[in-house]
Structure prediction request, 129 residues.
Amino acid sequence: MEFDITFPGGKRVDAQINGWSIATDQAPRSGGEGSAPEPYMLFLASLGTCAGIYVLGFCQSRELPTDGLRITQHLEWEGHKLSKVRFDIHLPEGFPEKYRDAVVRAAEMCAVKRTLEEPPAFETRTLPA
Prediction:
């Protein structure tokens, strides 16, 4: 799998994958135009949306109610370092009590979270133009 990372101007850095274009920019305070999320914000959002797809899939596969289902993602910092991420799963009214622990386990299956728990090796190199 490959992503093609391009530089369309200013502080924009975009990624193309499978016909999709994912735009990023820097905030004006960092010299960008604020035209798209910063890369780190997309990374943080990927944690919550990944947990969300597992929670949604769990509920849908059991035909459980999803009206009003949502996740609030809380971030804690020690200085400039992210120290803790907490997900609060807001269950719909009438959600069966017997599935409360299981829906938490489903959220914890998030592939992004699991990748952070066992990070890959990184390699950066230059190639001729």
Summary: The chain has a mean pLDDT of 97. The longest helix spans residues 39-61.
